[in-house]
Amino acid sequence: MRDRSANLISTTTRWCGDVLCRRVAERSTLVNLYSTAPLKLIGTSPVGQAAHVVLSSFGGGMVSGDVVPLRFRIDPDACCVVTTQSSSKVYKSTGKTCIQSLNAGLKDRAFLLWLPDPLVCYAGSRYEQFQRFDLNPTSDLVLLDWLTSGRWNRNERWAFESVLTRTELYLDGKLFLRESFRLEELDNLKMRFGHFNCFATFIAVGPRLKALVQQIQNLWKDQSVQPGAKVLLNLCPLEHGVMIRMMGSNVQSVQSMIRPLIGSLTDVIGGNPWSRKW
Q1: Which pLDDT does position 3 carry in this prediction?
Q2: What Å distances lie between residue 198 and 97, 176, 251, CA to CA?
Q3: Cis bond upstream, residue 207 (ω within 30)
Q4: Which of 210, 216, 251 lies closest to 234, judged by CA?
Q5: Within 13 Å of residue 129, how many CA atoms lie on the same side as its CB?
Q6: How far is CA 270 from CA 75, 106, 256, in A?
Q7: d(Cα 183, Cα 171) in Å, to the nearest integer?
Q8: Would you say residue 209 has pLDDT above 80?
Q9: Where are the domains of the chain?
């Protein structure tokens, strides 16, 4: 599987989405914004000092066999926020897997905030996601990657066929973090996850994010685990930042933990990426 992801991320030349964010006249500007079906990229109002890209799709989600490679390039001193129009949906497979890959490169003092809505995989769906972020010592990254159990109001809890995700972070070309997990229907996911319906990974890396890193560490320290808890947290310190994993009984419980973290970024970029979310 590693060879497959490397091929998708490193050698793809025909991107479904291609974004170049550059500092122009003291503002972060989207100088290139290209997308083709099934992906739709929308450039919208800036978030403070950051350019803002919204990911969407024709048809409201990914259908069996969709392959969506993306490339984001953030030039020196530029800042870009990426969100989604709504939750990312993956529909039932007819035998093929939906695949999304991301190749993101951050130059000197660049800042990327990757903050999608949670992934919703329908019953019988197959999904694979590969993300690579190339950083340097002066760039910053905030990354949110989260998944729900599916359409639990229709009794579809952890009913997808398979989900595979892999995220890799490189600093000056050297790998320093690989976060990967695979979930399969055969693993009896309902029993393994119990009453939890949302799983999230939140990563903050970079020299401008020391206050956010401390906030995340305090969040973990203040956690009191009780039987039947609505949220569980797991902290993973990194050499250049921090990663925290969260499990919640629903999206709202996880969102309530993440919202203050994202809100604190107002002091860094001059705006709150989630100010009009939910």
Answers
A1: 47
A2: 22, 26, 6
A3: no
A4: 216
A5: 19
A6: 19, 20, 21
A7: 28
A8: yes
A9: 17-269
**Calpha distance 3→169 (Å, rounded):** 17
pLDDT at 1 over 50: no
Indicate the pTM of the whole model.
0.93
Which residues, including other chains, have CB under 8 Å from residue 62's CB and lie 6 or more apart? 38, 68, 88, 89, 90, 91, 98, 100, 127
- 156-176 pLDDT tens trace: 999 999 999 999 999 999 999
Among 6-20, 106-120, 234-248, the least confident range: 6-20
Q: Quote the mean pLDDT of the chain.
A: 92
* Structure tokens given for 136: 């340097």
Burial category of 12 from C-beta neighbours within 10 Å (exposed 0-12, middle 13-18, buried 19 and up): middle
Confidence check: pLDDT of 195 > 80: yes
Decide if 80 contacts 46 (C-beta within 8 A): no
Residue-wise pLDDT for 21-42, tens only, equals 999 999 999 999 999 999 999 9
Q: What is the pLDDT of residue 13?
A: 57
Report how far residue 59's alpha carbon sits from residue 37's, in angstroms, rounded to the nearest whole number: 10
The two three-digit tokens of residue 122, written as one number: 């329908």
Read off the tokens for 103: 């190749």
CA distances from 144 to 81, 149, 200, 223 (A): 12, 17, 7, 20
148 contacts 157 by C-beta, under 8 angstroms: no
Spatial distance between the Cα atoms of 55 and 150, rounded to a whole number of angstroms: 20
Rounded Cα gap, residues 252 and 120, in angstroms = 14
